[in-house]
Amino acid sequence: MAPILKLGDTLVTGLLNELDDASALALAEELTNRIASDGARGVLIDISRVQIIDSFVARALMEMSAMAQLLGARVVVAGMSPAVTITLVELGVELTGVETAVNAEQGMAALGWHRSASRFESPPARAVSPQ
To answer: How many CB atoms are located within 10 Å of the residue 26 CB?
Structure first.
């Protein structure tokens, strides 16, 4: 199962390419429990590793999104490949109320996280006085 990370009031998880039925159900249950227990206001589901999606995984993604929304969390699905997009349309899957983003960074930005404009700089070195 994919890990679920907490960043402030946002949970971040992803779908793996080899997601089986049991793993999908376990992830949905764990995500739902974490939204409730952590008081998450946003959820990012990164699907960039998914190359092929079937009807079960598509339905699991739709159900995870619906459950998160019912618990008051805003959902962003990030990293959808063109092949997955085409398959979802062909399967008639509608991700109602789910926002999408090209990648995880844009998804996090949509949820209110912004990358710092400057890189981390270490403080200037101080001279050590002899004792």
So the answer is: 13
Residue with tokens 């844009």, as numbered in its chain: 106
Read off the amino acid at residue 85.
T
Residue among 104, 59, 112, 64 nearest 80 (CA): 104
Q: What is the mean pLDDT of each run of 10 residues along the chain (131 residues)?
A: 90 83 87 96 93 82 90 94 91 83 94 66 54 56
pTM over 0.85, yes/no: no
Structure tokens at 27: 């992830």
Whether the Cβ atoms of residue 74 and residue 41 lie closer than 8 Å to each other:
yes
Ramachandran class of 79: left when φ > 0, alpha when ψ lies in -120 to 50, beta otherwise: left
Q: What are the b/e assignments for 88-121, b being 16+ CB within 10 Å? A: beeeebebeebbbbeebeebbebbeeeeeeeeee
